[in-house]
Amino acid sequence: MSVKRFQRLLKVREMIENQAAIGLAARLDELHRIEGQHGQLEDLLNSYLEVGVPNSARGMRQVAEMRSQLRTVIEQQELRIAEAEFRVEEARDIWMEKHRDSLSLEKLIERRRQVEEMTENRRMQSEQDAWATRQAFDRVQADQ
């Protein structure tokens, strides 16, 4: 296969790699968003923990229920973070695979280019040798 055909294949592989990178970026954004929400929930829980003891039993129950609900939501958010981290790692693995494919093809193209250059150099040297031999033969024929 010629270098040009490999270069076209490389462009396709690079597009696939870019799509994988976009997918990875989206997963990272999702993870950061979920982590941000987790931080907000933690802050909210801390603010409820800092609230003084209410004067009434009803107020105490309400604060206790709110704390309990926030803890439950925070636990659920931690599970969402773990899932998002897993999806980030999956996307990173896919991108790395596509990136390795592109790099391998780039190396192959470079090796092919070097082989073609060596072949062209040999051909040119052969033509120059044939021309020089022909010139020398013509001079010998002219001298006789």
Note down, in words, how this protein is organized.
The chain has 144 residues and is mainly α. The chain has a single domain (3-143), classed as Helix Hairpins. The chain contains two helices and no strands. The chain has helices at 3-50, 57-143. The two termini are 50 Å apart.
List its traits.
about 140 residues, Helix Hairpins, about 95% helix
CATH topology: Helix Hairpins
Distance between the amino and carboxyl termini: 50 Å
Tally of helical segments: 2
User: What level of helicity do the residues show?
Assistant: over 70%
Radius of gyration: 35 Å
Largest sheet: none
CATH architecture level-2 label: Orthogonal Bundle
What are the segments in which pLDDT stays under 50 over at least 5 consecutive residues? Answer: none
Q: Structural class, from helix and strand content? A: mainly alpha
Q: What general form does the structure show?
A: rod-shaped
How would you sum up this structure in a few lines?
This protein has 144 residues and is an all-alpha fold. The protein is built from two helices and no strands.
Describe the secondary structure blueprint for this structure:
Elements: H1 3-50, H2 57-143
Helix pairs in contact: 1-2
